[in-house]
């Protein structure tokens, strides 16, 4: 069944048959999917009493496995945000008692950000619900579809410079 991107590219082929609009077949769908997914996840996290970015920071801290927390720089790298943005986000999470700033156990000049008990409990409770929600979003893809999509998305991401966090 034709989708919106098919309609857009068909219109371009009619109006400008001299221009190869086939890249729109990919980028148009990725763009539309990104918008839909962001809306779905934003709505989900709001229903949990969180902003999407709040969960992102809390989950980054939780999956680090480091009870002493992470530096703002490490959070910055994992979240790919500016230092000003991450500082603002940490301030807001501190105000909600979800994270705290603590001295680095090795370097007293450094500060680490770590989950509070409240923050850890929240992320641990929301994570399974988040995974159920993402399963819901993927429900129309068969397991084979998903397995085929993963390496293609990885290859495309890597080709555009999205490498590991290390």
Written description of the protein model:
The protein has 166 residues and is mostly helical. The chain has a domain at 1-47. Helix content is 65%, strand content 7%. It has helices at residues 4-15, 23-47, 52-63, 72-79, 83-95, 117-137, 143-159, and strands at 70-71, 99-103, 111-115. It has a 3-stranded antiparallel sheet with strand order 1-3-2. Strand 2 (99-103) and strand 3 (111-115) form a beta hairpin. The longest helix has 25 residues, at 23-47. The radius of gyration is 20 Å and the shape is elongated. The model has no long low-confidence stretch (mean pLDDT 91).
Give me the secondary-structure topology:
Elements: H1 4-15, H2 23-47, H3 52-63, E1 70-71, H4 72-79, H5 83-95, E2 99-103, E3 111-115, H6 117-137, H7 143-159
Antiparallel strand pairs: 1-3, 2-3
Helix pairs in contact: 1-2, 2-6, 3-6, 4-5
Concise structural overview:
With 166 residues, this protein is mainly α. It has helices at residues 4-15, 23-47, 52-63, 72-79, 83-95, 117-137, 143-159; strands at residues 70-71, 99-103, 111-115. Strands 1-3-2 form a 3-stranded antiparallel sheet.
What characterizes the major β-sheet? 3 strands, antiparallel
- What share of residues is helical? 55-70%
Classification by helices and strands: mainly alpha
Give me the strand/helix succession: HHHEHHEEHH
List keywords for this structure.
166 residues, mainly alpha, three-stranded antiparallel beta sheet, 7 helices, 65% helix, elongated
């Amino acid at each position: 069944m034709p989708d919106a991107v098919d309609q857009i590219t068909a219109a371009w082929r009619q109006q400008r048959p001299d221009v190869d609009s086939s890249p729109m077949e990919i980028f148009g769908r990725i763009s539309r999917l990104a918008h839909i997914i962001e809306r779905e996840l934003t709505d989900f996290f709001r229903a949990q009493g969180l902003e999407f970015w709040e969960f992102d920071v809390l989950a980054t801290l939780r999956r680090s496995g480091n009870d002493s927390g992470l530096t703002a720089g490490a959070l910055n790298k994992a979240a790919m945000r500016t230092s000003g943005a991450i500082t603002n986000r940490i301030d807001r999470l501190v105000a909600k008692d979800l994270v705290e700033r603590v001295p680095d156990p090795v370097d007293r000049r450094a500060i680490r950000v770590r989950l509070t008990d409240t923050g850890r409990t929240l992320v641990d409770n929301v994570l399974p619900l988040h995974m159920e929600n993402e399963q819901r979003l993927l429900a129309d893809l068969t397991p084979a579809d998903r397995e085929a999509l993963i390496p293609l998305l990885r290859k495309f991401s890597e080709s555009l410079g999205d490498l590991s966090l290390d």
